[in-house]
Amino acid sequence: MGARCSNLCFCLWPSNIKSHVLYTSDIEKWAENEQLNLPAFREYGLEELKAATSTFSVNNIVSEHGEKAPNVVFKGQLDGNGRWIAIKRFHSSAWPDSRQFLDEAKAVGQLRSKRLANLLGCCCEGDERLLVAEFMPHETLSKHLFHWDNQPLKWAMRLRVALYLAQALDYCSSKGRELYHDLNSYRVLFDQDCDPRLSCFGLMKNSRDGKSYSTNLAFTPPEYLKTGKVTPESVVYSFGALLLDLLSGKHIPPSHALDLIRGKNFLMLIDSCLEGHFSNDDGSELVQLASRCLQHEPHDRPNVKSLLTSLTSLQKEKDAPSHVLMSIARETTSPSQVPLTPLGEACSRLDLTAIQDILEKAGYKEDEGIANELSFQMWANQIQETLNSRKSGDSAFRDKNFTTAIKCYTEFLEGGNVKSPTVLARRSLCYLMSDKPQEALADAMQAQVQFSNWPTAFYLQAAALFTLGMDSDARETLKDGSSLDFRRMKQ
């Protein structure tokens, strides 16, 4: 790391800022060939989002604001693909014009960058106004700077946060979205790799008039207090306040920080946890950069391209993954992130016809040991009539004669001593087709008892639970089935 700082003698004149020649290709290299694997922006149904959040349960709230901006963010999981999402629910009076809200959301939803927690969609039904974005599992910059548990954020990681945020703002600006509302440490989130991302929610106003910049006027750009309008220069001012957060590990009002800088009381400004982990030059340049962003007159502040140039040159430990710098174990692919099999997908959307087709094609290959047991009993002439019942059931199943199939499968299950989870699965679907979800659930559970590691049993349980309106339980059961599929793929 850098040389130990026992005496911080920062020179703050602009002439001391290093000149770094940086080509556009170097700055924008991070944006090339992004593989985000994200769906296109779309409108979600209110019932779909209710299901994802257990009807906006308080247990799923991940952040909420005060009386000036009473908007709440929920964590949720979509039924169809298990994707985790963040859902911002606006106060009912924030956007009375649904068309205005939808147009604004669609514009933000066109952005796609690995530096953003991207907007996936929105919902406009009745008085409800909701935004749907990628969910970031490793919380906010505020948490890691101000409320850390095990260790403070490392200097190299703080520099990376600053650079990635500048890259995010530069990308948004290049797409015609220069304005960001109320940029602060709560708007910076960490993804599954612990890379920092900028929340897309700040790219939209908190309401149609945008009159809710900050709940703390000490951090509000001075021109906003006069005009009530956000400008690109206002965003740079807020970026400077964020640089102060990164430097100090505290939420220091810009006016107080500037007094410390002018009075050269730097030790009071710099996070004591960082002592010995950065050089005089690096510390001096970051303090200078923050002070330039916080100039009272907007035209005296640097633009985002200039910020990118300065911050790129400061980066340390460039090859170290973010999760290593943050000492957080990297999340491997989890069952909820593994795409469901076609059967899992069909059960998640209650496509009973697709389920039938998949079960028909699968045959009886999952009935462990049943073929040998049947052969022995047939040789002993003990089960021929029972086996005929199964064949008749299969014929009725193919012909979609589900009442007859239930009757024949029941004769098979009750007429012999052979266990068959596949017959139970088929009868479970027949019950679903016959609008008997309780019976379907019982058969799927019995199939699980007979074959405990069979994903099909879990998927059919989920289908029955969805039909019964038990969506939360159904999603958990889908995850169980997906987990078993995941283990099979790894074997």
Q: Any key phrases for this structure?
A:
491 residues; alpha+beta; Phosphorylase Kinase, domain 1; Transferase(Phosphotransferase), domain 1; Serine Threonine Protein Phosphatase 5, Tetratricopeptide repeat; 3 domains; six-stranded mixed sheet; 47% helix; lipoprotein; TPR-like_helical_dom_sf; protein serine/threonine kinase activity
CATH uppermost class of the largest domain: Mainly Alpha
Q: Proportion of β residues?
A: 5-15%
Helix and strand pattern: HEHEEEHEEEHHEEHHHHHHHHHHHHHHHH
Distance between the termini: 42 Å
The count of domains is 3
- CATH topology type of the largest domain: Transferase(Phosphotransferase), domain 1
Oligomer: single chain
Number of helices: 21
Mean pLDDT: 81
Helix content: 40-55%
Shape: elongated
CATH H-level name of the largest domain... which superfamily?
A: Transferase(Phosphotransferase) domain 1
Biggest sheet: strands, sense, closure?
A: 6 strands, mixed
Structural class, from secondary structure content? alpha+beta
